[in-house]
Amino acid sequence: MIGSMPVDARTLLHELTKEARDLDIGNTVARVSASQLTSLVFYRDFVSRNKPVVITGAIDHWPALQSWTMNYITERMGEAKISVARTPHGRADSVVRLDGSQYFALPEEEQMPVQEFFTSLCRENSGEVIYAQAQNNSLPEEFGPLLKEVADLEWATLAFGTNPEATNLWIGGDDSMTSFHKDHYENMYAVVKGRKVFTLLPPSDAYRLYFQTCTVAQYRRNATGKLHLEPEEPSRGLPWATVDPYPPSDEQMEASKLAHPEYWDPDLPPPLQVVVGPGEVLYLPSLWFHHVRQEARADVCVIAVNFWYEMAFDCKAAYAKLADQLAAELHSNSHAN
Ligand SMILES: O=C(O)CCC(=O)C(=O)O
């Protein structure tokens, strides 16, 4: 026995991981042309199975694909201010280890005109990283003048049976990353400029992400003008995934292999990786764990629009909750032993 769990709970979870891949998910994310995809096929082959897919050719008609240069966006937006997240390293909303403690680090949040945002984004080596990543229905709420240059994905809306609850615009550079997490939404993620690299794990694999309860803290500027982490008052804890799939140094990679053996285990199927390019849309099913990094290449910045649809709290959601609970139990027992 490990604590109160049978000793083979870990083996059973490994089997679940392998079986989910063998039966349906596979080891790659398929690409399907929008011309072959009706709402019914999309629902039958992907939504009902909670299975990711990249759809090509679905947004070729969006004027945004051609028009959204930095100059054009600046001109359309004028003096309107947008929400911007700022960190020293580009890893907002992620686990940061400091003086022997683990913090869940929220970014400093600012409002600034788009012109100032783009100027800072283009400035190299400022020692800080900014990312327009507000998830408050930001396309209509903050970028209203650009709204008409994208269109709803009507076939997806039909498959989900509801209009999107939020439509968010994301603008950032190569240094911004989004740490592993899951959302209680069905997500249609459309890339307009640059590339997004998604690392994905299904809900069954929660135990491979080593969630730990971290103290919530936020970056704030101190008297010398530097960003530093300030724990929230009153103090609160948040369980968050501690695995970083791109450790910044060889040393940190070795440390991660020791701390997170089931993430890197060569006997388990590796996380799925998919690169989503301009004009492509990723269907990211609800409750899938995702880590996101970006590659601007010649574009200077990466721009994407995502649509969040309400998810069904069905039996798949119940299985996912069980997987989360087993993961928490397994790791709390590993610490205790
Ligand atoms: O693009 C990103 O940086 C993160 C996207 C994301 O996490 C989401 O759409 O849920």
TrEMBL record:
SMART domains recorded: JmjC
Recorded superkingdom: Eukaryota
Domain JmjC: 133-324
Pfam families xref list: Cupin_8
Entries under SUPFAM superfamilies matching the protein: Clavaminate synthase-like
Coiled-coil zones: none
InterPro entries: Cupin_8 (IPR041667), JmjC_dom (IPR003347), RmlC-like_jellyroll (IPR014710)
Residues making up the signal peptide according to the UniProt record: none
PROSITE patterns: JMJC
Family: Belongs to the JARID1 histone demethylase family.
PANTHER family: BIFUNCTIONAL PEPTIDASE AND (3S)-LYSYL HYDROXYLASE JMJD7 (PTHR12461:SF99), HYPOXIA-INDUCIBLE FACTOR 1 ALPHA INHIBITOR-RELATED (PTHR12461)
Name of this protein: Clavaminate synthase-like protein
